[in-house]
Amino acid sequence: MFNVASPHAFISNAEWSVRCELAALYRLLAHFRMTDLIDTHISVRAPGNEGLFLINRYGVLFHEMKASDLVKIDIGGDIVDQLHVAGAVNKAGFNIHSAIHGARHDAVCIVHTHTSAGMAVAAQEEGLLPITQHALKFYGCLSYHDYEGIALNPAECPRLVTDLGSNMAMILRNHGLLAVGGSIAEAFNQIYFLERACQAQVAALTGGQRLRVPAKEVCELTARQSADEIRDNLHILAWEAALRLIDDQKSEYCS
């Protein structure tokens, strides 16, 4: 957590700390070019209340995001905080997040992106190929969800949850990428490596050469080794290192 005191009497220090961390994640996605103008979202559970979440105010670009731009909403996407008694929240976009938050209590943070590489792999019949070390992080633990149109229909939510299962990452076919984490740092780790794996696959396919796939037992071993890295908290080291990339923005995004 960020040790930043809340400037608002009606927002706890714990919530303000999470707001600052979430604003930092938005800016890091902008830094790594994982944005799509005002579309896509990152959400996180508000501390102290399992049924409330923080998400971006619709219309704010990711590189502009501040703690005060984040809106506290309930599971239906309705605004419930005093900082934004009225404002724009993309409820349709939150359909995906609300379904997963409601079904997966371990999904503290959810990241959804529309990157060129992510959409390209989402459009390929075989999905993510086991051709790089980054891709093997998700070997045997990557979900897929078929495209059903823009996520406006609540009836899609149960199918989305079923398809994700217990995995921490999913490719939304013909759409984009999705990652969850038990913390903001873990969700960042998942989306970063999934995005990089997709970028590498797109680059490899353009080379016109036959692709080499490691043996099944090597793929399985690499997936287990990657899971060990999370248990050993290496994702926290990576998160702290990533934050240093935007350290000069901290006073702004924590406002």
From TrEMBL:
Organism domain of life: Bacteria
GO cellular component, as recorded: cytoskeleton
SUPFAM superfamilies, alphabetized: AraD/HMP-PK domain-like
SMART domains listed in its UniProt record: Aldolase_II
Cross-referenced Gene3D superfamilies: Class II aldolase/adducin N-terminal domain
Pfam families cross-referenced by the UniProt entry: Aldolase_II
InterPro entries in UniProt: Aldolase-II_Adducin_sf (IPR051017), Aldolase_II/adducin_N (IPR001303), Aldolase_II/adducin_N_sf (IPR036409)
PANTHER family found in the cross-reference section: ADDUCIN (PTHR10672), PROTEIN HU-LI TAI SHAO (PTHR10672:SF3)
Protein family membership: Belongs to the aldolase class II family.
Protein name in UniProt: Class II aldolase/adducin N-terminal domain-containing protein
Origin species: Pseudomonas fluorescens
